[in-house]
Amino acid sequence: MSYTRETLAAVERILAERKTAAESQQLERTEQIIAEIPAVAVLRRKLASTMTEVIKSLGSGGDAGSLIKDISEKNLEIQKEIGDLLEAKGYERDFLETKYTCPDCKDTGYINGDSCSCRLALLKEVAFGSLRSNSPVGRASFDNFRLDYYPDEPDEATGVSPRARMEQVYNFCKNYAEDFDLDSDSLYLWGSTGLGKTHLASAIAGEVAKNGYQVIFDSSSNLLRRLEKEHFSSSRDNANDGAQDELIRCDLLIIDDFGTEFCTQFTVSAVYNVINSRLNRNLPVIINSNLDIEAVEKIYSERIASRIIGNYRYIQFFGSDIRQIKKNY
Ligand SMILES: [Zn+2]
User: Fold this and answer.
1) Distance 94 CA to ligand 1 centre (A)
2) Are residues 90 and 191 in the same domain?
3) How far is 237 from 219, CA to CA, in rounded Å?
4) What total number of domains does the chain contain?
5) Closest by alpha carbon to 326, among 156, 195, 142?
6) Helices (H) and strands (E) in the chain — how many of each?
7) Is the same domain home to 64 and 149?
């Protein structure tokens, strides 16, 4: 599983903030208690001095094992005394301990060099969060996809209703999202505008991101704008730096509204480059479009169309424009 530089940096920042907050709150609590219960300060000094005793005694050839045992017994006693004093004043016994968000790793994010579960959870959260900010992913899920928006009357030509067909499409997408891994197929979701392609693609994005994969979901015009900025910008510290790299390397790339952007020589070659590079790396892409393949060939190029035909699963959406129906509900 890979995450963007931004996600990794954001997670380190959150962990550092948690740790700093926990430790400075502990200092504040200590100052407050020492002012209120001076006896605690005396006991804390005793606690610190037992350590010095150990070091001194070891230097003069004392028996390390029994000494450490004595000292830790003494320490426990002092800690118990501090707890009693705190309790007597109405505080929790562990009031002076540092309260980390994650006691396992003390908010460092690592245990013996391995990622702590709290760091892994944060990575998912941040990746999913950033993905939510620029897409409808947070709102559209499999749970709120309404099959009853699709006509139940059998289609004259096929005898199958749009609703029955869309139920198959829905089930396919749901299984795809649940079983997603880096070997998953690339999909070409095709159908007129307003048939729920964006909703189901968003639902896939949400589910896949929740499972820890890095998903980029955006409209093709936004994605191309980022690529364009990166390509034509002279500054090296541009915010769009690495845009192409991210699109090529992320675990799942979802291109919404493919074919609605303004086509130039640059966009045609940028689209080809992303699609082809991901194909070479065997990384899945989902393309949403109301263009059939002939139109893709005409608008973009034969090269792009042939990559899609040869390597994508073609999923057709059916029904009347459900955005029209939704308005009447
Ligand atoms: Zn942790």
Assistant:
1) 20
2) no
3) 24
4) 2
5) 195
6) 12, 7
7) no
